[in-house]
Amino acid sequence: MELTAIYHRPESEYAYLYKDKTMHIRIRTKKDDIKSISLHYGDPFIFIEDRYEDSKEMSKVTSDALFDYWQVEITVGYARLQYLFELKDKQGQSILYGDKGCVENTLENLHYEGNGFKIPYIHEIDACHVPDWVANTVWYQIFPERFANGNPEISPEGALAWDSSIKPKTSDFFGGDLQGIIDHLDYLQDLGITGLYLCPIFESPSNHKYNTTDYFEIDHHFGDKGTFRKLVDQAHQRGMKIMLDAVFNHIGDQSPQWQDVLKHGEDSVYKDWFHIQEFPVTKDKLGNPRKLPYHTFAFASYMPKLNTANPQVRDYLLSVATYWIEEFDIDAWRLDVANEVDHQFWRDFRKAVLAKKPDLYILGEVWHTSQPWLNGDEFHAVMNYPLSDSIKDYFLRGAKKTSQFINEINSQSMYYRQQISEVMFNLLDSHDTERILATAKGDIQLVKSALACLFLQRGTPCFYYGTELELDGGPDPDCRRVMPWDRVSDSNEMLNFMKKLIQFRKDVSNIIQHGTYSLQEIKPDVLALEWNNDGQKVQAIFNQSSEDYLVDSDAVALASHCQELDQQLVILPKGFVIFY
């Protein structure tokens, strides 16, 4: 038995209150090393009677390249919990594992109070709570300047023609605005969208609006507050949620606060709003952006970093966050560069916004594993870029073997508490990445497989505007081309595919969110995925090989690049089929 591989940590993603009085307990062991694990548990004060009250067999729920992961769900009828693991390997060895580590499996050690892991009191308030509506939402990300021009009268001077073949430059404007989004809400509703994620809409001189001038004003090229209120109201009438982008890590250099610093230097009342290393404040030294005398987003001199530990900055930004909830009833905040802002600010942010709207969704932009932000006191979820990378590497780039992909997805499934996983923001591309059609080098069948896989993952799926119309584009700024509205038609195959995929996801959402899953390589480069929830199953087969794969066609719910043959489906190279 490999003792060094055994791992558990109380009050973490390895032991947490899921909902009501249901606890999830997990443990990690070396892959293929352990035959069975029993969890012994009870109230810690049971030791007056010298025994555990309950015992339950754990299930091996998944495995990656190195480890097996076991889980058990227990209903706790009391407010305290003590527990101990009994592990048996395939050679017959048996040990107990608890707070004191690994010990011999004896009755004395089993009943010794000091061996057990303890959750001294199960406080419901300390559990990770997430908004119920998020898990059943399908998101659509909009870069407002490029989605639709609904009011040409407010377009920037020199705005370019609305042509999706134009590769935009960093400074180009096309005239997209909020009225353009309103004009196409019926289109989005018909598509099946239930959540709109809008990139920043506040006053800013750029086309991307991530260098904010005024957080309390809608950018005048996008419209005004009346237009935004109309957008929110009409979206809500259609059952759609609205998520805004909060850029609180940094501000624009045209903002009054930063301009005051440039004008008054050390005498500015705003000098402590920023991370200024020395005065006078200049844009760079000898033309080297890495020698800036102040901290910024990346090395962008026009985005000075805010000091969110400063009480004045904190209060100002929290007033922004609550204003758009109170005045316009937005449903979610996406937090830009969230991992570079201090944790205490986000704890204060959570308290402030949830006090105004308890079911508001808080989404952080973090591109890596994010346990520190997902313990129930900061974000509800993060943008799931690790999942995105794995899917794109496997389906679009062909850079991963099937076994590697399975190991990565299985490992990621154990990163967080289940309720967090149920609202993780799953995406493949965004305004910050090249478009998936470009990643796939124009192969739409690969794109369909990647999207199907994404929509079969636990979490809340999102796709980038134009994906349903095969909009292409390389890295920023090319990924921000205008929406190709001329491609919309009843005969557009990709558009119809996305409608079917979205509806299918809605039909099986409960199975995915609450079921158990498995990933298997059933033939070289042929991947089988299955969800099972109380006998209800969703099965998918992805063929990434160069050979056809025959599958029984019974109960096919969705397929791509397939042909019928003798009551079977021939999955052509790089295709998939989903059964339900």
UniProtKB/TrEMBL annotation:
> Which key words tag this protein in UniProt?
Glycosidase, Hydrolase
Which Gene3D superfamilies did the record assign? Glycosidases, Immunoglobulins, Oligo-1,6-glucosidase, Domain 2
Q: Could you say which enzyme class this protein belongs to? A: hydrolase
Q: EC number(s) of the enzyme?
A: 3.2.1.-
Q: What SMART domains does the entry give?
A: Aamy (SM00642)
Q: Which residues form the Glycosyl hydrolase family 13 catalytic domain?
A: 141-505
Supply one GO molecular-function term. hydrolase activity, acting on glycosyl bonds
Specify whether Membrane is a keyword of the entry.
no
**UniProt superkingdom:** Bacteria
Q: Which InterPro entries match?
A: GH, GH13_cat_dom, Glyco_hydro_13_lg-like_dom, Ig-like_fold, Ig_E-set, O16G_dom_2
UniProt name for this protein: Glycoside hydrolase family 13 protein
Where is the organism placed in the taxonomic lineage, from the top? Answer: Bacteria, Bacillati, Bacillota, Bacilli, Lactobacillales
